[in-house]
Amino acid sequence: PTLLLIILMMVLFKSTFAVTTPGTFAAALSAIDRAFGGLFFIFIGIGITAWLNMARIARGMALSLREKEFVEAARATGNTNLQIMLKHMLPNLIGPCIVRVTLAIPRYITFEAFLSFIGLGVNPPTPSWGMLISEGYQAMRSYPHLAIYPGLALAITMMAFNFLGDGLRDALDPRMK
């Protein structure tokens, strides 16, 4: 459902902000999108859907940390709620959140590549692996390397971020120790 929602948002953004009156908010957003080569609306679409999962995960971890003994000990020593959140809970939350974001990056790279592959992604002068794969797909019979090399680069990048996320999880996640 996330990819479908992003596709719908991209269609809405591209159609709504295609023709704008100069000096309006829509014209400003359209100019920003053109300046970023079409990536601005992709970032907005992915950001709107991505923060929900991160917020749910962070809230669940915060609720479980709130019941831990070190929070009760901090409360018993007279720390305020703000001190407990900043000194005790935040350091325990930040590591798993960084790991989750790092493990989610390959999914967002795939979303961008897919949007560019179907023509809803970046504008043509801006390079994108999805666009390169799409252009290579058109000439697949004659020049298969035009699709294979961008596909391999995309796969290697996604694997690298997965390995980075696994390494960070091993280093930062307190449940893994």
TrEMBL record:
Main subcellular localisation: membrane
Classification via Pfam families: BPD_transp_1
Signal peptide span: none
Species lineage: unclassified sequences, metagenomes, ecological metagenomes
Transmembrane segments: 34-54, 146-165
Location relative to the cell: Cell inner membrane
GO biological process, one term: transmembrane transport
Keyword vocabulary terms for this entry: Cell inner membrane, Cell membrane, Membrane, Transmembrane, Transmembrane helix, Transport
Organism: marine sediment metagenome
PROSITE patterns found in the cross-reference section: ABC_TM1
Membrane topology according to the record: Multi-pass membrane protein
UniProt-recorded name of the protein: ABC transmembrane type-1 domain-containing protein
Keyword Membrane appears in the UniProt entry: yes
Record-linked CDD domains: TM_PBP2 (cd06261)
GO CC annotation: plasma membrane
Location of the ABC transmembrane type-1 domain: 1-165
